[in-house]
Every structure is written in structure tokens, then in C-alpha cells.
């Protein structure tokens, strides 16, 4: 329900036009307001032309009518000429980042002071007890080429901290920039009747438990076979993402509206690589299934599917 909000939070500035709120948030809109996650902000100085399909966005000009003395807003559309704009359409709402992070911290039981470590991009949210350990949590947004290195440097002393990104796409794009476990808020935080909810189990599934590492190095047969099963499942989900991406672009060309190919169930996924349902569940819960979980979450997100560029790690070729 909050997908549109997480997507917007990964862009600058994180604002919605008034008329985007209903399509973006639907029935969640009233609760989002009640929680103070959106605040009114200055009206936009730009507006899109709604008369033509050119996608033109123009600077708003205020003209006073010589006849009535009223002030009206116009944009100079190259295709349509001056187009009158409803001033209400210029109203904007900004995501209140402090309120969003406060709600996420409360729901995820993340404690301690919040520190902005890379202005506008990375915040230390405090620490939480996940997978039987105290872990630092960071929120990271709007990562561009110029900021990636600064964020990675700020995290260098916290290789086990959990990084929370707004969307699966953003978490995927970060990929292996650092060794930190990455989690998309769009997959773990939702809007419940009481406010923001937080799927702690899911976060723990993403967290690589450092205690498991010596076991992995010894690689007993059982462990090795689990790793092999995870890689079979991962390859299958990647294959699905490729198909889903082609499907989205094909439907976009045909109907101007991209469609999301329905994701298979985990049981169906297991059948296609000859794994039983309990085996699939064990694989998804395994600390080594970080990429598998990430791709699985992406497969349910149209934006992430369309942005999918192929697997993050090359890995051993098969
Ligand atoms: Zn126009």
C-alpha cells in the first residue's frame, strides 16, 4: 500500500502533486496523513501540460486578467500555446522523512539517536536486536554515482550493519557496493491499522549471521547441497525476472501500460527445479539466500522488474 511512497522517497525532492495522491496511495491516504508522513509544502513552480500528450512540463507564469483583475496560472506549452493551470493542481505534499524514519524505528524496535551520516542520503538509525544479535541499522536513499563512495566510506567501520533502502530496485542497485545485508522497506514495512508495521522475521532472513561463517568454510555435505539448491532457485528467479521484464515492455508497447507477469508461488518455483516445498522454505530462510530473497521481492515489483539489468554477482559460470 505504501509502495508509491517508498518509490518517491528514493527520488529528490520526495514530493507528490495533489492529484497524484489518490492514485498513488489509494485508501491508505487518510492514514498516511493521520500519521503525519506527508506535509504540505510550497506550491510547484512547474506543471505538466494536460492538454496534449507531449509530456511537456513548463514553468508556471501568473498573469492578471485585464478584464477581471483575477490572477491565473499558465504554462507556455510549445504544442498548445498558453495552457491555463488549476492552482490546486500546483499543491504539493512532501514526505516527512523524520516522521517516516521515526515510524520505521518504532515498528522495527530500532533504538538510539538518529544521526545523518551522509547529508540527504544516509542515516544511522540506531541498533536493533535481530537474529539474536545487536545490529546497527542504516537508512540509505537516492544513491547516485557521486554519493556511492561517500556512503560506502561511512559504512566501512560497520560491515555487519543492516542497510534499509526504500525499494527493492534501490537495494538491488546497491548490490555488492559493500558486504552489508540489504533490505527494501517496501518488502518489510507496511501500513497496518495501528500505523507502520515491520516484518522482523523477513529482516532476519536477510541478515547473514556471522556465527554461521565458520560452518560455511568447513562446508559439510549438507551445507554444500543447500548452497547448490539456493543457486538453482536463484537462477530460476533470475530467469523469471528476464521473462517478466520482456513481458512488461511488450505490454507497454501494445497498450501503453506495462503489466506485471504474475510471480509463481514458492511451491511452483520449487517444482520447476525439483525441490519440495519444505526444501524451498529452508533455502529462502538460509543466511546465504540474500540474493535469492532480493530477486524474489523484485519479481513482485513492476518498477524493479523493468529496471532489472541482470544478476548483481557474476558468480561461477555454469
Ligand atoms: Zn500541451
Describe the model:
Helices cover 42% and strands 22% of the residues. The strands form five sheets. It has a five-stranded mixed beta sheet with strand order 9-10-11-12-13. The chain is built from 14 helices and 15 strands. The protein is an alpha+beta fold and 318 residues long. It folds into three domains: 3-95, no CATH class; 97-210; 214-307. The structure holds zinc ion. Zinc ion is lined by residues 49, 51-52, 54, 56, 77, 79-80, 83.
Furnish the topology, listing elements before pairings:
Layout: H1 3-9, E1 15-17, H2 18-25, H3 29-34, E2 38-41, E3 46-48, E4 57-59, E5 61-64, E6 71-77, E7 81-85, E8 92-95, H4 97-107, E9 115-118, E10 122-130, E11 133-140, H5 145-155, E12 162-165, H6 168-174, E13 182-184, H7 185-188, E14 189-192, E15 195-198, H8 200-206, H9 213-218, H10 221-255, H11 266-272, H12 277-285, H13 290-298, H14 302-307
Parallel strand pairs: 11-12, 12-13
Antiparallel strand pairs: 1-8, 2-8, 3-4, 5-6, 6-7, 9-10, 10-11, 14-15
Helix pairs in contact: 6-13, 10-12, 10-13, 11-12
Provide keyphrases for this structure.
single chain, 318 residues, binds zinc ion, 14 helices, three-stranded antiparallel sheet, alpha+beta, five-stranded mixed sheet, 3 domains
Compressed to H and E, one letter per element, the order equals HEHHEEEEEEEHEEEHEHEHEEHHHHHHH
User: β content, as a range?
Assistant: 15-25%
Strand order of the largest sheet: 9-10-11-12-13
Q: Tally of extended strands?
A: 15
Number of domains in the coordinates?
Answer: 3
Spans with pLDDT under 50 lasting ≥5 residues? 209-219, 314-318
Instruction: Compute the separation of the termini in Å.
Output: 39 Å
**Average pLDDT score:** 87
Shape: globular
The distinct ligands, each listed once, are: zinc ion
Contiguous helical run count: 14
* Helix content range: 40-55%
Largest sheet: 5 strands, mixed
Structural class: alpha+beta
Q: Quaternary status of these chains?
A: single chain
- The value of Rg in angstroms is 23 Å
